[in-house]
Specification:
With 117 residues, this protein is mostly helical. Helices cover 79% and strands 0% of the residues.
Length: 117
């Protein structure tokens, strides 16, 4: 079970790297007002959602305690991120504020995962 959990943690990290990396590659364009949500951001967010749900299930199934409030907050942030990226994925330009919000929520999700114990 540990190997499976570690595999999904790795995939979860790849998802967050894809989401954050897609955001960071568009930072210069955001300054110019031409930023857009790249496919890597959508795929990263979807990967995070699927692997996160699997990780919660694996931990619950293994009898480990899960902080459901923390998971709920992280899930809520991810659903907002997914909604924004999915709806605006085909637009050539995304508003700076909206694009920045996705970056902020992604960063907040990372810090919640690391700091909330």
């Amino acid at each position: 079970m540990d190997v499976l959990t570690h595999l999904f943690v790795g995939l979860h990290i790849i998802g967050i790297a894809s989401l954050l990396g897609g955001f960071l590659t568009q930072m210069k364009a955001m300054g110019q007002g031409t930023a857009r949500f790249v496919p890597a951001m959508l795929h990263g967010a979807l990967t995070m959602l699927v692997t996160g749900v699997v990780l919660v299930g694996l931990n619950e199934g293994d009898g480990q305690s899960v902080n459901h409030i923390k998971i709920g907050v992280k899930l809520a942030l991810l659903i907002v991120i997914l909604g924004l990226v999915y709806v605006k994925r085909d637009e050539e330009k995304v508003d700076k504020g909206l694009f920045g919000l996705v970056g902020l929520l992604t960063t907040a999700n990372i810090f919640i995962a690391v700091l909330w114990t």
